[in-house]
């Protein structure tokens, strides 16, 4: 049986701080949660904890923009339809309706905070573009292709203008504190230079909001920054929370392919941390760029009615097939037809990154390859961001609200962070709970351990090779076997030293094992989950959700629950439920 700890091995807290609401993560979801919590409870104490600097999360790298029905000819209903189509039957329609209905107001709110979105020169209206899966131009952007950076700037400026918000930077969250009734009561965390020599402390709070972002660092090729190590999902699993649909990992089709000194993408594969590959925005295809092979042959013609603007899973799969057939590790995005003036005006960031890598998109096709980009699954929440652990909320990429289904529609991610973070604040305004005295992290859950960080690069390679864009029973079985051995704290005599490297590796191993287990259970192809041995979508058997839990002994359980009439999978048990122990036995 695979060993998964229910608590991270760490020294006891050397310091304690008390607050009302603690928010973990400083991307668009975390920052929005803080600002709206302050609006809802002006006298409440809010503490923001972020893993690096406040501006170093995934939001700053978002290029394309934010999707919202802002044009007169568009409507929330049209946006809803496009989102449901991209989600391939697994979206929660009620959650999507919330997203598309409340989204336009949240975008206008951002603009009122000072976010300088690009405007039409003649009318002053939002300049809107189109991305894959959208049948209308509805993507608002800033700085051409620097939307995330501008959104982050505006939100941070608003936060810094509020003296009632405390910020702790360079802090890695460790475990959830629970009170004797099983309610969230704070977190333990490691802060460089704080308290004891190792910096471990505790924050007690009446509500905990996780906005920790994604888990792209479990793969060898990702657009995610180094901080995206699945910390929030791993913490939630250790605390006993329900995690949903981890198998749906979206690979962005067009990450800039960079040849390292040995010809490997993104440089030396033995490097301890997976390199972050620059994103080449889908909006470039929205403006007319085409995917081609080295001979200039179109890649997407005849594959999908939308061709190069097909949903991301379709494009990534076709690219992977072509690359495998041709024995190459990258293809090309030909944007030369857009012309230098358009490229420089709409895509200044991409142009600068390409030219820094020795590629001039004005004259040269851009080398691109699929890379892990976004986790559509995550900690299961309701429409108010509430998880299955009372007092624990989640928003942004770490959460699974139901809006993305099996495949996120382009530019819906920033919108989800805006909408559902604001809804958490509304729920908190109804009354913060008063938790009982917190006890040791994760009351009643005793297994403690650390994974060996020396195995981190091997973990990322195993995940990419066997659980990446294309999967099969054989590849997933081999990956599960490798993950069992990689970083197991019982191998090597328990010599792993507690610290950030070991804590991150333990989180990576936890979410990787959980993801592979979910992918093994779902024996069909749907959205961003592609099974070579089950190439068809099977609504009769698999139109439902895969739910994952970690019990108090550290054993992973994976449960499939078919959708009922309302589209709510329920927690576990009942008609349409299948339970697997293969995750812990075979992993």
Coarse structural class: alpha/beta
Helix count equals 15
In total, the number of strands is 24
Return residue spans where pLDDT drops below 50 for at least 5 consecutive residues. 261-271, 565-575, 581-587
Helix content: 25-40%
CATH architecture of the domain at 254-369: Alpha-Beta Complex
Strand content: 15-25%
Estimate the global geometry from the Cα principal axes.
globular
Radius of gyration: 22 Å
- Average of pLDDT: 87
N- and C-termini, Cα separation: 8 Å
- Main beta sheet, described? 6 strands, mixed
The top level CATH class name of the domain at 254-369: Alpha Beta
Q: What's the CATH H-level superfamily name of the domain at 254-369?
A: Succinate dehydrogenase/fumarate reductase flavoprotein, catalytic domain
Sheet with most strands: strand arrangement: 20-18-13-22-23-24
As for the CATH topology of the domain at 254-369, it is Flavocytochrome C3, Chain A, domain 1
Explain what the structure shows.
About 30% of the residues lie in helices and about 20% in strands. With about 575 residues, it is of the alpha/beta class. A hairpin with an 8-residue loop joins β10 and β11. The chain is globular and about 65 Å long. The N and C termini lie close together (about 10 Å). The C terminus is likely disordered.
Question: What's this entry about, in short?
Answer:
The protein is of the alpha/beta class and 587 residues long. It has helices at residues 28-40, 76-86, 93-112, 147-160, 231-238, 283-286, 312-326, 340-346, 348-356, 413-428, 456-467, 473-485, 500-521, 539-542, 582-586, and strands spanning 7-8, 16-18, 21-24, 46-49, 66-67, 128-129, 139-140, 165-168, 171-178, 184-191, 200-204, 207-210, 243-244, 249-256, 290-292, 331-334, 366-375, 378-380, 392-394, 399-400, 448-449, 544-550, 556-562, 577-580.
């Amino acid at each position: 049986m695979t060993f998964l700890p229910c608590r991270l091995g760490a020294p006891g807290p050397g310091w304690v701080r008390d607050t009302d609401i603690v928010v973990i993560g400083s991307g668009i979801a975390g920052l929005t949660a803080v600002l709206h919590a302050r609006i809802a409870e002006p006298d409440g104490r809010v503490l923001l904890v972020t893993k690096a600097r406040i501006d170093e999360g995934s939001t700053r790298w978002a290029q394309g923009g934010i999707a919202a029905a802002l044009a007169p000819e568009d409507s929330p209903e049209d946006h809803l339809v496009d989102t449901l189509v991209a989600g391939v039957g697994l979206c929660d329609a009620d959650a999507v309706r919330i997203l598309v209905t409340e989204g336009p107001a949240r975008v206008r709110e951002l603009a009122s905070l000072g976010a300088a979105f690009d405007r039409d020169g003649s009318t002053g209206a939002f300049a809107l573009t189109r991305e894959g899966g959208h049948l209308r131009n509805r993507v608002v952007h800033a700085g051409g292709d620097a939307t995330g950076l501008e959104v982050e700037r505006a939100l941070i400026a608003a936060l810094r203008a509020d003296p009632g918000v405390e910020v702790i930077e360079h802090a890695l969250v460790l475990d959830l504190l629970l009170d004797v009734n099983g309610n969230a009561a704070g977190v333990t965390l490691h802060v460089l230079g704080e308290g004891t020599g190792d910096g471990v402390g505790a924050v007690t709070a009446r509500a905990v909001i996780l906005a920790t972002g994604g888990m792209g660092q479990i793969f060898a090729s990702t657009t995610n920054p180094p901080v995206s190590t699945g910390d929030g999902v791993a913490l939630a699993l250790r605390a006993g929370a329900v995690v949903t649909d981890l198998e749906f990992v979206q690979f962005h089709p067009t990450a800039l392919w960079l040849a390292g000194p040995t010809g490997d993408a993104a440089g030396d594969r033995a490097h301890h941390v997976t390199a972050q590959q620059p994103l080449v925005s889908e909006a470039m295809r929205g403006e007319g760029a085409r995917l081609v092979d080295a001979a200039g042959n179109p890649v997407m013609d005849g594959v999908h009615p939308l061709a190069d603007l097909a949903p991301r899973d379709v494009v990534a799969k076709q690219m992977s097939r072509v690359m495998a057939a041709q024995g190459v590790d990258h293809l090309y995005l030909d944007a030369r037809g857009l012309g230098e003036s358009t490229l420089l005006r709409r895509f200044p960031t991409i142009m600068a990154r390409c030219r820094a890598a020795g590629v001039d998109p004005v004259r040269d096709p851009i080398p691109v390859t699929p890379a892990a980009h976004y986790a559509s699954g995550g900690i299961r929440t309701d429409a108010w961001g509430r998880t299955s652990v009372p007092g624990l909320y989640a928003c942004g990429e770490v959460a699974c609200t139901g809006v993305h289904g099996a495949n996120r529609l382009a530019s819906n991610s920033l919108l989800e962070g805006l909408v559902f973070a604001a809804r958490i604040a509304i729920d908190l305004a109804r009354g913060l709970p008063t938790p009982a005295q917190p006890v040791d992290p994760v009351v009643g859950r005793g297994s403690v351990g650390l994974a060996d960080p020396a195995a981190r690069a091997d973990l990322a390679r195993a995940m990419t090779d066997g659980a990446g864009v294309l999967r099969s029973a054989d590849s997933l079985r081999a990956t599960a076997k490798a993950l069992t051995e990689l970083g197991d704290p019982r191998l090597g005599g328990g010599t792993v030293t507690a610290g950030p490297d070991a804590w991150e590796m333990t989180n990576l191993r936890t979410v990787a094992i959980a993801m592979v287990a979910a992918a093994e259970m779902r024996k069909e192809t749907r959205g961003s989950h592609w099974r070579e041995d089950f190439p068809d979508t099977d609504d009769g058997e698999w139109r439902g959700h895969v739910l994952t839990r970690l019990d108090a002994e550290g054993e992973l359980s994976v449960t499939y629950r078919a959708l009922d009439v309302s589209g709510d999978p329920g927690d576990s048990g009942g008609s349409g439920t299948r339970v697997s122990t293969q995750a812990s036995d075979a992993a």
